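Re: [help] complex structure
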Amino acid sequence: MKKETPNFRNVTENPCHMCMPMGGIIPFKGIEQSMVILHGSQGCATYMRRHIAEHFNEPIDVGSSSLNEKGTVYGGEQNLKTGLDNIMKVYRPKLVGVLTTCLAETIGEDIERITSDYLRDRGLEGFPVVTVPTPGYGDSHFEGYWFTLTRIVTKLTQRAKRHSRVNVIVPNISPADIREIKRLLELMGVEYILFPDFSETLDRPFEKPYQKIPAGGTRTADIKVMAGSAATIQFGMTVEDSMSPGRFLQTEYDVPLYNLPIPMGVENTDLFFACLKEITGKEMPASLRLERGRLLDAMVDSHKYNFHGRSVIFGEPELVFAVTKTCSENGIFPVVVATGSRNSKLPRLLKGFLHELEIETRILTSSDFTQIRKNSREMGANIAIGSSEGRYLTEKEGIPLVRLGFPIHDRVGGQRLLSVGYTGTTMFLDRITNTLLENKLTNYRSSMYQKYYKNYHAAVPTH
Amino acid sequence: MDTGLAIRERLDSIAVKGKQKKQIKCDTDSIAGCVSQRACVYCGARVVLNPVTDAIHLVHGPIGCASYTWDIRGSLSSGSELYRNSFSTDLQEEDVIFGGEKKLARAIDDLVGKYKPRLVFVYATCIVGVIGDDLEAVCKAAAQKHNIEVIPVESSGFIGNKAAGYRAACDALFRLINSGETEKKKNDPKINYLGDFNLAAEAWIIKNYLYEMGIEVNVTFTGDSDYMALKKAPEASLNIVQCAGSMHYLARKMKDRFGIPFMNVSFLGIEDTSDSLRKIAAFFNNDEITRRAEALIDKEIRRIEPLIRGYRKKLQGKKAAVYVGGGFKAISLIKQFKELGIDVVMVGTQTGRREEYEVIHDLVNEGTVVLDDANPSELERFMLEKGAHLLVGGVKERPLAYKLGLAFIDHNHDRKHPLSGFVGAVNFAEEVYSTVCSPVWRFIG
Ligand code: SF4
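Output below.
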């Protein structure tokens, strides 16, 4: 049976989440020719750039209003305006995002007013600037990501003529995953507006000359007409309504919303295609049926190895949800499912299907790694799935880690990990099965010796 | 228009070595919107203090600051591993409104109960200064309650740049060592090693050299140090300072308070390492130490010279760009590149000081671009303009270099192989070779 562990504590030990503006930077990187500036002290921007750069292995330019003591005491208006000037001069963006940090929020900076004054003073009325209040103490980077998407849509989208395209709104998945979703849409013959699209900008090909802002990203012209789309598919089951761009488009502009799980695993991916069929009437082409068949074949190939998997899954709620579902389809029983976010939807959604498994699953929200570690040990987890921060579980508890999510900073290729769709799921499952196998094959000689030989005379083996 | 230098306010921070010498503007706040590569006060403090292995490092603030600094550095420990955790009060909106003092006090109670430390560092972040939490008072009360040392670190992010964080860390360290009894035997060959964070065993390498010379390292600030060792700092008869940017301030304070003289050293590259060992030996004015130092230098150079010569041959005529945190490191790197037959065509730092920029100016060739607090567009422009083949920098600079098709050397706190001492000089040469001469560049053209 499942148990939800409430988590009240005075101190977070080894965090499983990051701060709001971090999450807010990424959507802006998925809009064509856009730049972001953080209103706050210099360090926040630098730390976040470092983290994001290491995950994607891409240069990540983010401006900062570099608030100093004076700005903090007398207000940072001038700093932000100078910052905007310089960003405009050097990067010549077509859209600018302004995010706040803890500091700017605490001193009560009104970024909406400051930026509209700025645009008026510079004669730039109409230039798209999207402001997003993202206090670091507000919530986690997950909420920062979704709230920013909602602000962008709120600001840019206008009432538009109905058209047949479908909005596809994605969470913080890898560029490879985004490319895969686009491929699937194209195979289905669906016209779409994918938002935010950082598949090219945060995983750009090598080319000369170097562009300060990489090519690619959702076009602002497309964001504008999202209000006229035939429907919205949003991979955001765990997202609160107040931060859901899909919900906004639905209530404001009557765009039907299909809120779906990330298409990972058989059922979630089936759901995606069923939904596309419902919207467009189009059937899945034969080539995709083959991909689905191959996934099923792979699942059969690996089911016995997987059956010994007791997984601990952690990270952003949306990904955690999809991964838990995928694991439970494959006998890699989720015994600990954790997120650092306070998300309240996740536990409810998980309970929706976990009851079918005859195991106990601990669900932790607002969690940290000290707690995740303790629960993983108690529950006998033998495989971890999540970001690089989980390396701690390997080091301290000997639980091997299959890296997925954000950030991956101790291995290369976080941006190239493919895990969605039938083919991506197959690749993801293989990574899990092979990790389980590797662990088993490395240890079985010594563990068998320990169990059946060394203690032979001491005790009869219990199992 | 020339976008690389579109920002006029930046012009004074950039100089090209030429006929007339130009004073470069440095040690100022970053200009808003310039995409500075600099971090913050908290970062500076955390870098310096984090290697203290048996301390609780508690970040009083919202979660991000603690998240981004959790065990990301390569400092090694021979004992406690407590420093590899990241503790945070994870301030929430209510705390920002009503103050975070109570939460902080409870956090300290919890951690002390669980880990039984002798020392707790409490780092202030941006908003702590603004919401007015009295860190000093909370720490004092906690110290009395638990009978351990709880030291506040005044590292609010907006009160300056990384250098202010170094000072905050030094103040915290000084508080720690100034509270004990001091007893010193004059002229014992016992020294403190300041400004080495034991990245990938670097402090251990230097400690071994000094041991071979008959000199004992009393305590390292702060690589692989702990509470007990730090307390004994006043017993040393000399302080050697490697990372002057972060530790010069502490060295001065220790001189004023305990009368311990200090000298700057550098263990990056063959030339600097040899010079520094000789300087240290000379200080003790002891024939045996001098003899042993010469023997060590001789032995090591004999061992590594053929290796370096091999690399040098392959690297002839290559051009390097340098963009690192402090001036001290930049200076050593210029010399080290000379040892490898490589010209430095661009050199910059995040927090270099005037004196350091003067040394840099004297060391580099005509035409070399020198810049303070650079940003990606300037780095891009000058590396291309000067035809650099490789860049030395940190994590943020790496993808930029690669995208431009340049080789890259990590010279930051995450590194997993030592770059100090004679061993480090070989590692460095090998790393330069491995990146500059990699076959991948054939496809980049
Ligand atoms: S938690 Fe606040 S101060 Fe810390 S990095 Fe995030 S925004 Fe900046």
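Chain B touches chain A through 74 residues (CB under 8 Å).
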